Amino acid sequence: MALMRITSPHAHGPLSTAMVMRTVLLATLPGIVALVHFFGFGVVVNILWACLVAVGCEALVLKLRKRPLGFYLNDASALVTATLLGIALPPYAPWWLIAVGVSFAIIIGKHLYGGMGYNPFNPAMLGYVVLLISFPLEMTTWGAPLGINQVGAPGLLTALQACFMPASVDIATMATPLDLLKQNDSLLIANLWTQQPVFGRWAGLGWEWVNIGFLAGGAWLLYKRIFTWHAPVTMLASLTLLAAIFYDSGSSASGGSPAFHLLSGGTMFAAFFIITDPVSSAVSNRGKLIYGAAIGALIYIIRVWGNYPDAVAFAVLLMNFVAPFIDHYTQPRTYGHSKGGGRSS
Amino acid sequence: MTAMLELVAQNPFIAALLALVGLGLVFGALLGYAAVKFRTEGNPISEQINAILPQTQCGQCGYPGCRPYAEAIADGEAINRCPPGGEGTIAQLADLLDVEAIPLDAEHGEEKAAASVAFIREDECIGCTKCIQACPVDAILGAAKQMHTVIASECTGCDLCVEPCPVDCIDMISEEVTLQTWHWELPSPTDPLIIASDRDDMSSDKERAA
Amino acid sequence: MRKIYDIHGGIHPLENKHQSLQVSSTPAGIPPQLFYPLSQHIGAPAKAVVSVGQKVLKGELLAAADGFISVPIHASTSGVITAIEPRPVPHPSAMPAPCIVLDSDGLDTWIEHSGVEDYTQLERSALLQLIRDSGIAGMGGAGFPAAVKLGVNPERGRINTLLINGTECEPYITADDILMREQAEAIIAGIHILTHLVEPTEILLGIEDNKPEAIAALRAAAAGTAIDIVVFPTKYPSGGEKQLIEIVTGKQVPSGGLPADIGIVCQNVGTIYAIYRAVTYGEPLISRMTTVTGNAAAHPRNYEVLLGTPMSWLLDLAGYDAKRNQRLMMGGPMMGFTITDPSVPVVKTTNCLLAPTVEELPAPDPAQACIRCGMCAEACPASLLPQQMYWFAQGKEFEKLEAHNLFDCIECGACSYVCPSNIPLVQYYRAAKAEIVQMRNDHAKSEHSRTRFEARQERLDREAAEKEAQRATRKAAAEQRARDAAAGDGVEDPVQAAIARAKAKKAGQAEPAASADPAQAAIEKAKATRAASADLAPEDKARQDLQKLRERAEKSRARLTESREAGAQDKVIEALDASVLKLDEKIATAVAAMADQGWSENPQQAPADPAQAAIERALAKRAAQAAAPALSPREQLQKNLQSVEKSLQKATAKLAEAEQENSDKVEVLQQSVQKLTTKQSQVQAELTALED
């Protein structure tokens, strides 16, 4: 056997891109379990169907781009996009809604920009926003947090029916806590809490546990060093800070308590699974601090003063725009250089 | 005054118009100020072009030296007439002048893979000084009826001394890669060990073509 | 306890050091043939001072340092020099390079040598010279001449810290470890020599905490001295000079600067040991400790190897199984480079020979797209942004690469190691660095050429101006003379004048170099040749070439006779003779070639020289005129009239045309028509007068 001539280093660490993706997928489990527990099997159907469509789209585009299928499908990045979008979409969404969102995310959000690693925007959030703008009604209808073991809660079969034959079933829906809070302009927060059944201990019923689930998954990813703490921490911190500043101890015009915001909607999901998407975010640690903080602030601003009930997708996409700009100004100080950026001598 | 304010308040169209015009004025003033304040005192364009040209002074472009060609480019001459500079120079010129990079004009010669230097076979040199006169950078030493020699470090490899030599004793020797000058190349997309993944799969294209 | 600082980034690859540490080091013996590459250090290659066939003794100088940044090379055993020629050398390019080949005689006879009795009595410069003459280059892997590093330029400031590098952070390598275990006393003694040389205020020896035996041995040997053994946690690449400095002092070497800029000089323990041997025993650097390890070697261990020993010799000793090995490396798995020919020799920088099995270090997987995960930035010890630099290197955006401090990359490989997409990042940086350096050099050279060109241009202009001035004076003088001669019968035969003009023109064509800038002339000539040869059929071209060759032969012959008559030097005559001969030969070949092609040497219609033809035409015309019976004045006038009328007709037609087209030539044409009309009437008048 001829001896190889290649450049150093010759040793390679244990990590591979496919492994990173699989770890991320695994980390979504606690959140998914919580979602299933409170909202039924809808989310599972969402994810499975989304994954199927995603792999199909990915294979189609790879074929068109004349790339080896096995090599690229193996990195599992399409599954991650699909899973994240499947989680973000309302459970019991009709099949075509999911298909449109996922195919937009994969084909336009990812491959038209050059494939994995080249997309300037988070594909999942792109798909989500397209759906939110195009089909606002379907996108804001959330299943009621009935709990899986309660009477009347939809089972797996119903969930499948709801997805593929949307006309044949009727799923109990409710406004989300964020929605209610936005529409409320007469009640004190405390009264709202007691009047509406969707509120739980700190935030929405079920929502708080879903968020805690994603928080747990995110903590595990942090422990596995899949991403750094910078962006999630500053995002949560800025959201908390703004919520604390504008929380006038619960008047009718109040934006809600910090705990409410932290555990509502897609807060934790965004903090650990969306804004940590490395491709579309800022790269340096200082840049990530700014990136995360800005997303946190935007989420609060859009939630409280904007037109949409939840704001994660818009906040992330807006900051995707800004990421290269942040990168330009947050280049870390290289070894042997003075703080000003020039060479110290 | 109040009447005007009222008019504006009642007609959102006028308000929008005013706002836009105001914005336009403000930004226009800003841009104008920036243009004056931060104006770059650049070299004349021919200077910048000349700095990019390889300064071999070989005349293959049809101009007697690099500066004349630089001036010609500044006056609109094609940027693809410099074989010693090759694609790299064309790309830089295209970048500077903000035009499309075009392939090298083969009429003026081809890009050589490696730089070369002239070498006089000194036994055969008759000391005619013809090459000395032809050398654009005074890189040949010698006097009439004395042997001449090329100062290798000053030679630009322009070839101009080869033609005038009456006894054909000048060779162009290409510079060889040594341990000191060798370096790794950028990983190529066709390297079987390294598939830079988002490139066209060239090997399969070739197979199809075959 | 000294404060330990942390460096940014770093990785923890599998250490794999235990394999080669099971047994103590052993001498590798004397191979039958040894190779000494002239370039095995940073700087100019050494210059061979021995000749083929020469007998040399162990320790004898083989090649001398060539310049300041260079080191000499010594024979590592006694024997005969059998060749000085390019051979395979350990280098990532796998290119052969000049080597001195020594056939050992097996006697291992030392040249006479002795150490320094008391180095403290020695002048600093003499001690430095001794280190320099012993051929000591940095043995940690880079191979920078030790004496250059130690002979600190006083301008850079005082050296406060002497830092000894015993880190050895690369996986697999244990050469320094075993040296520190076995030669702790010698190393401490060596440090004392350096202390005497650089007179630092503090002496530190940095070592990772994964070498407890070495630490214990060193601590025991250094007890009671001022040497501070600094132990810090294992992390790759803490053994990099800049990183080690930061770990033990908290200071950073300024970018583009040297450790000396912040008062530190750093040396590897292997180098210290070599210096100790050189000073105490007078032995030049002829052997070193080399680790042979990897699972394809049955007996991994450290060998005391004579420099120049072929690696295949070492591999045989270690029970190397070529079948299980896919890549052979000199150095460690992080910064070492691959060897494609196991016959390359061990050199001054060969700290390790790594022969892993395929399972141990599998071939790299194909690279995937960068997902900008940022793990490389986390691992980078220089706090760079490798993923950004990768983008820029791919797009060859060299300015941006420099703005991202590409040149502060130490190529440690930590980024490639952690990259989940298997991108060969380091290769991108190496290639980009080399291209940037090349561009800088090219640009410097072109700037230099430009100034030379402009200087020459100025000189030529000046000379031309001087000549012009001289010519003007001469012309004035000539005119004066002409006026003095006061107008003789200046009427010349017009045909004769035309001939002269044509001749002058021809001469001018033949030698434009005389007046114009020779470079310009050469360009034009070359262009003309190129254009001409492009248009010519091969047959014509061959003919033309032959013609040229003939002309040149003629010229050379003329010059030969000329110089013979002038009594030129024999050498010149010989050269001319040779060139005439050569040209004759060439002519013969060309004629033969043309004959082969069936081309005749003379074309059907001889391409006449235009000037010559003009002359001939003029002569013929004149002859015809002379031969024809003289026309009577009347006939002459009639003829004139005819021609004028003809011209007038033509001019009028043209004018009409121009008027129709409203061209701007109308005025000119009108004038000419007028003129012609006047002339016509004149001739008419003359004719009538004659007829009358």
From TrEMBL, chain A:
Residues where FMN phosphoryl threonine is found: 176
Keywords: Cell inner membrane, Cell membrane, Electron transport, Flavoprotein, FMN, Membrane, Phosphoprotein, Translocase, Transmembrane, Transmembrane helix, Transport
Enzyme class: translocase
Membrane topology: Multi-pass membrane protein
Subcellular location as annotated: Cell inner membrane
Transmembrane segments: 20-41, 47-64, 71-89, 95-113, 125-144, 202-222, 229-247, 259-276, 311-329
Cofactor: FMN
Keyword Kinase assigned: no
Documented EC number(s): 7.-.-.-
Keyword Ion transport applies: no
Role, per record: Part of a membrane-bound complex that couples electron transfer with translocation of ions across the membrane.
PANTHER family listed in its UniProt record: ELECTRON TRANSPORT COMPLEX PROTEIN RNFD, ION-TRANSLOCATING OXIDOREDUCTASE COMPLEX SUBUNIT D
HAMAP family cross-referenced by the UniProt entry: RsxD_RnfD
Self-association and partners: The complex is composed of six subunits: RnfA, RnfB, RnfC, RnfD, RnfE and RnfG.
Family: Belongs to the NqrB/RnfD family.
Name of the protein described by the UniProt record: Ion-translocating oxidoreductase complex subunit D
Gene: rsxD
From TrEMBL, chain C:
Skewed-composition ranges (Basic and acidic residues): 441-486, 538-566
Cofactor(s) needed for function: [4Fe-4S] cluster
Keyword Transport (UniProt): yes
Span of domain 4Fe-4S ferredoxin-type: 360-390, 400-429
Chain intervals for the UniProt region annotation (Disordered): 441-566, 626-650
Membrane disposition: Peripheral membrane protein
Entry keyword set: 4Fe-4S, Cell inner membrane, Cell membrane, Electron transport, Iron, Iron-sulfur, Membrane, Metal-binding, Repeat, Translocase, Transport
Broad class of enzyme this protein falls into: translocase
Polar residues biased stretches: 638-650
Designated name of the protein: Ion-translocating oxidoreductase complex subunit C
Organism the protein comes from: Candidatus Litorirhabdus singularis
